[in-house]
Model the fold of this input.
Amino acid sequence: MTPSVLATAFAFVVGLCVGSFLNVCISRWPADLSVVRPRSRCPNCGHQLAWFENVPVVSWLVLRARCRSCQLPISAIYPLGEVLVGVLWALCVSRWGPSFTALRVAVFLTLLTGVALTDLRHYLIPDGFTVTGLLWSLATALAAPFIGETLLFASPYDALIGACAGAGLIAIVGWLGEVALKREAMGMGDMTLMAFVGAALGPPRTIVTVFLGAALGAVAFLAVVYPIALVRRGRTVPQTELSLGTGPVELPLVPFGVFLTPAAAIMLIWGDALIDRLFLLS
Ligand SMILES: [Zn+2]
Done:
């Protein structure tokens, strides 16, 4: 094996372990539980996992997706999350080598993955991800010039202004949305998420992230959420009412973080090129 293949394979294994810890954060933070104690247990029977039942992906395969104690199935979401993070870490090292930049991108994408999965499952964005992300982004922005790798991420000054721009823009959009819709339009979690993203990307890419996230959300809403709501109305409302068109379409809440996170990832990698092109067109 060449050194670069070896480094990529090592990054994949590290990513699997990080993904395993991410699973713990996703299932415990929404319930305000510690991610350190107690040790991992079966959510069904409470059986405490031995070390060999807690090896990323391998244990799930060896146990054939069943708890060793109660025999109930273990969701495939856990190994899939581990593999996803493992692949992200491997991609980062294969693209940027075993470098500070690769580590920064890998941590950024891991935290975004955690935010997206928690928002999708629980409709909330835990402070654990966003506070960690904000502090990590500011600290690495300060360290980057000394290490000599300032690729992709904002400078310390832009990181500070970016955090304020991200949180501020969400606050403005949320305020205007509340005035227009007469209900809460943005959660506190969206604001803290964009403070973290802003500290990583700096002001211009952060502002585009919010609009790109809104565009992705609008597409998903029209293509998936609205048709499902329409079908559900057809099922629950009696035929006569439906034909008169009086039954209101009850629209579910849209977790905005699910769309802000891929937008932020796109803007980190391709944002500068995208913004250059936008300005050339105008
Ligand atoms: Zn069990």
The radius of gyration is 21 Å. The first helix runs from residue 3 to 28. The mean pLDDT is 90. Residues 1-98 form one domain.
